[in-house]
Amino acid sequence: MNLLFENFRLPGNQRKPGELYLTISEDKIVDLSIYPPLENIKDCIDCKGCYLSPGLLDLQLYGAGGLILSKIFSRAEFLAIDQLHLRAGTTRYLMTIPSLKHKDILKAIAVTKEVMAEDNTGCLGLHIEGPWFHPQQVGGHDPAVIRKPDIKNIKEIIAAGKDIIKLITLAPEQFLPEDLAWLIATGIPLSAGHSNATCHEARRFFNQGIRLSTHLYNAMSGIHHRSPGLTGAILADDRVFTTIIADGHHVDYTMISLAYKLKQHRLLLISDATFFGLEDGISSINGQQVIKKEGACRNEAGRLMGSSISLLQAVQNVVRHLQIPIPEAIKMASTYPARFLGDLDHGQLAAGKIADIILLDEQLKLQRVFRAGKEVEIT
Q1: Where are the domains of the chain?
Q2: Active site annotation includes 272
Q3: For residue 166, what are the contacts with CB-CB under 8 A and spacing of at least 6?
Q4: Catalytic-labelled residue, pool 58, 142, 237, 272
Q5: Thinking of the domain 2-53+350-376, which architecture would CATH place it in?
Q6: What are the tens digits of pLDDT across the range 279-296?
Q7: The pTM is what?
Q8: d(Cα 360, Cα 47) in Å, to the nearest integer?
């Protein structure tokens, strides 16, 4: 089946609506041109001047609608989370689990493997966030399961998660040097997070090959003019990408602006969505009571426990509050995360790429969603 998109704008492109045409065949984009195709078009979509954007790609997504993988380990509910975020514009993602017991990490790997074997789901793999954290940088994770690395257990996890685990967040200073070197050598991307590393230690870890940090500013050693910490090391190193949560609660927008000026295409938006789609009130995650009030989700101790936004809302926030240009804000949540993962199939509108496409109006409100060439009902 061939499908033609017409009368759209590409963010940042100076052409007027109607001067570009995008054609897809089955699940792939086959052409983006100023010339309409001459034949074999089954259907045309009038985009009515909307922005045509790649589907969004979230490197850190926990749950939605009261469902959280680390609580359920269920294929059906995993797919329900998938659909809730898909209808909000996130076409691809890494399902994320927090610090868990060893047996529960293996359960999460097993259900993720099952879901990834199915057709047309958005899961690109598993992001294991914890439990190998510095005890002073636990954040909203359960302190009872934070532990020192046990390389025997980690090797079992890596073996079980072959081709499934796509990212691990850890505090590198908690590892023995030889164990960290082994883990880096597996080729699984590692992200420094929930870490109390000094700036000097962080530079050493970056020199060893760690190229990402998790939710900049949150749960890491901060900046002091005589002690730059992990945060300072991240901001100063042009090799290092970092994710950030732009929900207005985790980080002040002034600090996001500073990070953007320093990191540019290495600053990646994530949702950290844990309570997306829930109204204000009381819920729970892994035995901890969570109070959602005015968009912020906190445990009884007042610590933030994930976010309640979608990735598209993060894009909207940085455009609205920081005046980051729309094309750049979209790339921060699509092209650049795909680039970090080495994913050549997603995050771009170009011939040969998977036809993950969203339509946004001038206020960046979602109008239509396509994943792998198939339209999704969003209302």
Answers
A1: 2-53+350-376, 55-341
A2: yes
A3: 94, 124, 125, 126, 127, 188, 189, 341
A4: 272
A5: Roll (2.30)
A6: 888 877 767 788 888 888
A7: 0.96
A8: 9
